[in-house]
Amino acid sequence: MRITVTVDDPTPEFQGKLLALLADHAPDVETDTAWTEERATQYYRMLPARARRIVKEAVQRGGMVPADALRDKPDDSLRGHSAPLSRILQRGKMLKRWPEAMKQPVTGVGPGFGKVEGYEISADLITVFKAAIRNVEG
């Protein structure tokens, strides 16, 4: 059996009762953590311009954007460009726009220690985020 429930603007009392019911049955509850067009649109809309560029470039390039493609000049630093990707994901969770278990759609690729070789988005998310970009940018 599969039951899908969407509640827009629940009262605090109703939300508390529903969450308690779900908690009582947690082993039998599967949380929907898929990036849908609506979720991706909300996420993309919340991102600042530099982080949007990372997502957009990764989508347009088929899943991977090299760091050099994001630099306006060869020696430009990308420091601070990707932090909003994580921060907005957490903010959306806090605002209950998506579940706690949602995974980061775009991740840095590289040796670590702050240095990245690029950013990637999973191939199965490209279509959803392409729609989100179109929804936000027209």
Strands, total number = 3
Which percent band covers the strand fraction? Answer: 5-15%
Helical proportion, percent range: 40-55%
Q: How many discrete structural domains?
A: 1
Number of helices: 6
Class from helix and strand fractions? mainly alpha
Overall geometry comes to: elongated
Kindly report the spatial arrangement of strands forming the biggest sheet: 1-3-2
Order of helices and strands: HHHEHHEEH
Average pLDDT value?
88
Radius of gyration: 17 Å
Main sheet characteristics: 3 strands, antiparallel
Distance between the termini: 39 Å
The parts where pLDDT drops under 50 for at least 5 residues are none
In short, what is this structure?
The chain is mostly helical and 138 residues long.
Can you put this structure into words, describing what you see?
The chain has 138 residues and is mainly alpha-helical. The chain has one domain (35-137). 46% of the residues lie in helices and 8% in strands. The chain has six helices and three strands, in the order H-H-H-E-H-H-E-E-H. The protein has a three-stranded antiparallel β-sheet with strand order 1-3-2. The longest helix has 13 residues, at 12-24. It is elongated, with a radius of gyration of 17 Å. The mean pLDDT is 88.
Structural features:
6 helices; 8% strand; 138 residues; mainly alpha
Topology:
Layout: H1 12-24, H2 37-46, H3 49-60, E1 64-66, H4 67-70, H5 83-94, E2 106-109, E3 118-121, H6 126-137
Antiparallel strand pairs: 1-3, 2-3
Helix pairs in contact: 2-6, 3-6
